[in-house]
Amino acid sequence: MGVDMGHIFLTGMMGCGKSSVGKSLAYKLDLPFIDLDARIEERQKKAINDIFAESGETFFREIESAELKNAARHEPDSVISCGGGIVLSEQNVRIMRETGNVIWVYRDIDSIIDTVDIQKRPLLKEGAERVRKIFEERRERYEGSCHFKINNDDTIDRAAERIISVLK
Ligand code: S3P
After folding, report:
1. Which atom, in ligand 1's list, is nearest to the CA of 37?
2. What b-and-e string marks burial along 68-95, b requiring 16 or more CB atoms within 10 Å of the CB?
3. Inside any domain, residue 1
4. Which of 14, 51, 52, 133 to mutate to test the pocket of ligand 1 (most atoms within 8 A of CB)?
5. Is 17 annotated as a binding residue?
6. 8, 73, 98, 117: most buried by Cβ count inside 10 Å?
7. Pocket of ligand 1, candidates 11, 37, 132: which has the most ligand atoms within 8 Å of its Cβ, to mutate?
8. Per the domain annotation, does 2 fall within a domain?
9. Which residues, in sequence order, are CB contacts of 55 under 8 Å at separation 6+?
10. Is residue 72 part of a domain?
11. What is the structure's pLDDT at 22?
């Protein structure tokens, strides 16, 4: 990998393992790790669930885009784990592609439904069928916006290694 490789953005459905894979990847590459959802929660001093409940999804998407832009433009090269809906905005996709590599972390939707912590994710609370529908609606966006798709169907460590090998 070159010196000016830019950021590594991780996209994909909620519960696909972006944060765990991202931390492992950042450690292996000795890069800072940024979790955009965590940044939003710090800045708003509220859980994502409460932001959705009190201010609605549109407001959440606005601050999510602002946080992405801020990190992409002002942070040194980092591994950036994004919320699952980041690809919904064309502008977000453009910023990610201009400032780094976009990796779609793919995990089978049934494994996600079986294992994810539903309570922390407002959209998942609406049930398994809704999650499947969201995935079908977004699939093309994940596919079309990424430079590489990586399977997270084994260990976190292997998924991180896969990312490193495609970026070499
Ligand atoms: C969302 C995913 C969540 C969080 C919010 C909305 C989505 O992030 O940003 O609940 O629309 O897919 P994770 O993908 O990190 O769970």
Report:
1. 9
2. beebbeeeebbbbbbbbbbbbbeebbeb
3. no
4. 14
5. yes
6. 8
7. 37
8. no
9. none
10. yes
11. 98
What residue ranges line ligand 1, CB within 6 angstroms?
14, 18, 37, 48, 83-85, 121-123
Establish whether 15 is an annotated binding residue: yes
Query: How many A from CA of 98 to the centre of ligand 1?
Result: 22
CATH at 115: 3.40.50.300
Total number of domains constituting the chain = 1
Q: 18 is in which domain, residue-wise?
A: 7-167
For residue 133, how far is the Cα from the chain centroid? 18
Q: Encode the chain (168 residues) as per-residue pLDDT tens digits.
A: 444 689 999 999 999 999 999 999 999 999 999 999 999 999 999 999 999 999 999 999 999 999 999 999 999 999 999 999 999 999 999 999 999 999 999 999 989 888 877 677 777 777 788 889 999 999 999 999 999 999 999 999 999 999 999 999
Per-residue tokens: 101: 């590599």
Burial of 119 (0-12, 13-18, 19+ CB in 10 A): exposed
* Complex ipTM value: 0.98
Q: pTM value?
A: 0.95
